[in-house]
Amino acid sequence: MSPEEFRRVGKQVVDWIADYYAGIEQHPVRSRAEPGEIRAGLPAHPPERGESFDDVLADLDEVLLPGVTHWQHPNFFAYFPANASGPAVLGDLLSGGLGVQGMMWATSPACTELETVVVDWLAELLGLPEHFRTDSTGGGVIQDSASSATLVACLAALQRSGQDVARRGITRRHALYVSAHTHSSVERAARIAGVGADNVRVVDSDPDTLGMDPRHLEELIAADLADGAVPTMVCATVGTTSTTAIDPVRAIGEVAARHGVWLHVDAAYAGVAAVCPELRWINDGVAEFADSYCTNPHKWLLTNFDCSLLWLANRAPMVDALSILPEYLRNEATESGEVIDYRDWQIPLGRRFRSLKLWSVLRCYGAEGLREHIRGTIALAREFAGWVREDPGFELLEPHPFALVCFRPRYSELPAAEADERTRRLLDELNDSGELYLTHTKLDGRVLLRLAIGSPQTERHHVRAAWDRIRRAA
Amino acid sequence: MSPEEFRRVGKQVVDWIADYYAGIEQHPVRSRAEPGEIRAGLPAHPPERGESFDDVLADLDEVLLPGVTHWQHPNFFAYFPANASGPAVLGDLLSGGLGVQGMMWATSPACTELETVVVDWLAELLGLPEHFRTDSTGGGVIQDSASSATLVACLAALQRSGQDVARRGITRRHALYVSAHTHSSVERAARIAGVGADNVRVVDSDPDTLGMDPRHLEELIAADLADGAVPTMVCATVGTTSTTAIDPVRAIGEVAARHGVWLHVDAAYAGVAAVCPELRWINDGVAEFADSYCTNPHKWLLTNFDCSLLWLANRAPMVDALSILPEYLRNEATESGEVIDYRDWQIPLGRRFRSLKLWSVLRCYGAEGLREHIRGTIALAREFAGWVREDPGFELLEPHPFALVCFRPRYSELPAAEADERTRRLLDELNDSGELYLTHTKLDGRVLLRLAIGSPQTERHHVRAAWDRIRRAA
């Protein structure tokens, strides 16, 4: 494709996307495709001869779109929204156009240095501690996902545990600590890192706050020590995936510090809320105790997936765990020690110029614009929660500190199991309608509906319509 | 950013990229930035108020571009090129615009099903075995990089070794087998998976072909068995990173099969060459012996990074190793067993709609166009190698089956160490000129220059000019 052809076709694609957003409400939020349906609409064999990009766009419209669940739809309230925004999409497009490999400083210095700048900017915007800054002992890096960030933290924790796991492998039993509400990525990291799912201990949660119980953590650590295991990492969550509950980071950190256990703070969803000074309390204990900290601009901060930020208080054990330098990658800059090679800060070797999209977002929105987005979505969530609270037919889970509201119809005439079944049927009916998309979770064995607000497309009337639709259906 | 603003700014960005490609030869190939220089040109603090995208583009031009090494430049011959192409960039733009999460089938069916279709298409185009197809026991998946693919293969191998590593963790010594020419990603996988770098055995290589010696592999496996270790995975390479040497996959496979050792074939660079029937001999032994196979369309097949394909002969041990299903991700489609959830096939949980870019490439080039690209770049490499061979002042490493040529000036009047030093100085001088960009490797302790051809922008006159420049400088 010549530059001139790219210019022509690229503008068609931009128009396609602009039209898509302008007309997004015409699509059912959740795809109605049946398993295998989309595949059946595509040729079984690849084309022998090249086709035009027009053909690609035509098939996108006709064959693929019916199989797309529209994550950017204003009525998408499922999971946690993964926000896109114009500046992010265009920053990412620039990254694609430049086609740069950022595995090392030397392979494209701007890719590394812009990343350093934006992760430091974001640390400042979120009020994170000075030692997370790159010019200190720590530093930040863009990962693809919080799961990868958790794994990197786990590898650093294993390395710091003094067993030289990178070299000798796992030679003792290492224990990781979570609560029942911690994201499954910690168990997954345990599986990947050779710790094993059986060595993930589940610390009790406070039944009211759902926060991890630091005394029980202390007991489990003591039991593991007595048993000859190596207590290695605890994960405290700020904003759990299920209900946005918050672990007591400071109290957990005190226990962890006492035993030399790595504290990873998973604030994948909620951490970005700290752009608002009035929400900065969520960072309590992070400066004093967190060895690593993760939050995802690709969830609630208007930056296309993938953009998950990991900061470390001390980058040395991570680099020890992950650094290898074969001859064909040797270069003067690396050997000078004056530069960062982010390949040593992540699982893959290669990396895209992901900082461009975050840079575009931080610049085009500015701190003000980001705060407005967080405050606006929280305000909508509060308003929705207010309607739920006032309706005697519904139960609301409180508190709801962010932009997720968990609730359920009371169905007080029914036994719990039947009420749950009704709630599930309600969920299916709502999602099948195509008018909105919610997901569910379970708490104390009971089904709860989750309504998460995050899209910049979502306005008050969408949330109101969702509530009316839910109430009608219940 | 409203759809109309996106339409306007998006077209500016498309123009920016088209202009960038049209004028790419005006840039020095390798950035001349000094450590810290780009960072110093950027504000230390994030903006309080939003700026316009014009400001972003202006800073891209003025501040960032001097720090960019131009991987898409026709005179970029370093590492392995990471090809971009118009269709790939635009397919990726569509992915960004849709902003879809593809972690599970249910989160956007088209994202999963298009991926299944294109990985099956590519398996067919490369003549890979039927059991790599998704409708068989195996299946393919898009990973971010070959390093991640190697890690996933290693986790599947550990799981198949019968120790239930996912659950119990590493409880015995597991051994992995490589040669001195295997990519460092295997050692990295050993570090990450808890196997440990010390348990990576280096099998001897044939001094002529640089291929792994299967008899020595057999000896090392026997020694490990005698020592109580679990021989777990051997990595055979088709096209090593250093010199594109080829391991004898069939002979290695026979040894591996005898001992129940997982055979991973790393064809990250060269595997895509099998789109040409005359190069399909590189697949010898894959159908009979490979448990997993990786090749990167993002290197030599015109698809923007990241797009690394991993196929498995049997997906079950991988899914066993990686699958966890928390309540908030439960859904009917997953529980029906009728769909693929690619989150169980990779390290992260979330995933982009990466198949769109590969689909765009396969459709816009067609099999014919892909073959033409592979054949054209190999022909240029052969012509370059011919010039080197005919020049008495140079030594050429043979064979050079793909589009990488390794060579060095003879400097026959100098002792080896001094000649190497001169070769390094030559490399620096060439790269500092900005006219072209090469990298180096070492073979038998001696420095070799690497010239890799891969960009669709590279024409015969660029390669000729590179040779003239090299000869002049030497």
Automatic annotation (TrEMBL), chains A, B:
Its cofactor is pyridoxal 5'-phosphate. Pfam families: Pyridoxal_deC (PF00282). The keyword Metal-binding does not apply. Keywords: Decarboxylase, Lyase, Pyridoxal phosphate. Belongs to the group II decarboxylase family. This is Pyridoxal-dependent decarboxylase. The lineage of its organism: Bacteria, Bacillati, Actinomycetota, Actinomycetes, Pseudonocardiales.
